[in-house]
Specification:
alpha/beta; TIM Barrel; eight-stranded parallel beta barrel; 11 helices; 15% strand; binds 2-phosphoglycolic acid
């Protein structure tokens, strides 16, 4: 099954407005020659509009770093799918490990957020991944199973076209400790197998599964060479035009 690669940059709570616009323009520039892959950047909420304007007409996708489950209402601090669509935002990250571990978001909440995104036109990038303690206790596959099944509860096969999964082992995020290509492939193959159990084989085969966790210019090529790795969710290395450009240009 041919899956179109996706290289996504998660800018987290970094960059000023001017820096965000400059970096967005550089991403447009470096991705203009790549017609066989998608590129997404996820700035902080206040700079979404400026970044959408900077990439307009380029094919570079813009993502939010989270999304509310309701369309509107008394939800202080939240931003809804229609609001994001109004800005021209096409994707939203849900369930990032920082949301889970710092802000206490659980699988049930992440499921609501994901369904909030895909009930409209926003594609969800669902992040999952085990902690080091869970891996060392031999619980990795159980944790991934629960995260996938609970976050995708109530999602139809048809809606899975609007879902991307990002496998991000928590111990690899921002630590410089990347999973080996074999470790990543093992987890990705397991996730795809799980999707086959939940949906049909052809639906599971079409879902893009990104790897995230200390992706760098010097490890992107070997990661992308794995059968079930369809792209990357990049944090630190997405904040510099030069390194993100090299990741976009993976071989
Ligand atoms: P990192 O972050 O590339 O800095 O490890 C990845 C992420 O948090 O999505």
């Amino acid at each position: 099954m041919q899956r179109r690669p996706l290289i996504a940059g998660n800018w987290k709570m970094y960059l000023t407005r001017a820096e965000a616009v400059t970096l967005a323009r550089a991403v447009v520039e470096s991705s203009s020659s790549c017609t066989d892959r998608d590129v997404m950047i996820a700035p902080s909420f206040p700079f979404l509009a400026a970044v959408c304007a900077a990439v307009e007409g380029s094919g570079v996708l813009v993502g939010a770093q989270n999304i509310a489950w309701e369309k509107e209402g008394a939800f202080t601090g939240e931003v809804s799918a229609p609001m994001l669509e109004d800005l021209g935002v096409q994707m939203a990250i849900v369930g990032h490990s920082e949301r889970r571990h710092i802000f206490g978001e659980d699988n049930a909440m992440i499921n609501r957020r994901l369904r909030g995104a895909i009930s409209g036109a926003v594609q969800a990038v669902l992040c999952i991944g085990e902690t080091l303690a869970e891996r060392e206790a031999g619980k990795m596959l159980t944790v991934l199973d629960a995260q996938v099944r609970q976050a995708l509860a109530g999602v139809t096969g048809e809606q899975m076209r609007k879902v991307v999964i990002a496998y991000e082992p928590v111990w690899a995020i921002g630590t410089g400790k990347t999973a080996t290509p074999e470790q990543a492939q093992e987890a990705h193959a397991h996730i795809r197998h799980l999707l086959e159990e939940i949906f049909e084989k052809n639906i599971a085969g079409a879902v893009r599964i990104l790897y995230g966790g200390s992706v760098k210019p010097d490890n992107i090529d070997v990661l992308m060479a794995q059968a079930d790795i369809d792209g990357a969710l990049v944090g630190g290395a997405a904040l510099k035009a030069e390194s993100f450009n090299r990741i976009i240009q993976f071989q």
